[in-house]
Known about the structure:
By secondary structure, this protein is mainly β.
Amino acid sequence: MGKIIDFREIRADGKQVDDSMSIEELLAKGWKPSPVIEIQWKCSGKSYNLKNADGLSAVLLNDGATIAVLYWNYPNNTFDFLNSDGSQRFLISNEQSIEGELSIGSFSSPSSEDVEGHACCKVIFDSPLLHNLFEIYIDAVKGNVVHADERRY
């Protein structure tokens, strides 16, 4: 798979956010919050896009060839890893084994972070059953959890 270029998010208000823009830059522009409903990118000379009217959070991972997408389809969101051509690499279940116990939860706040030599996506997993938040690091190649940190609330 080729490398992804020109990755951008399209908000419901029509404004485009490119991968280099920070929260501070968005606030300086005076933009009010608006959900992202589409992502666009290019790879190997072709243009791609993905839409979800309910909203989504997406991040281009550090390997430059993987997009992690969190679809906001309530009551349960789904967490997907895409190849640079838009095909699905794998889908991460909202049922996770945490501390040896199977728990259904929801994901939020995906970000790109490398851990222990793995290109990863860090995501927050909210487990109401366990009354905790967990930072889960998912390997972008294999889809397995390589590290998890508990955050009590």
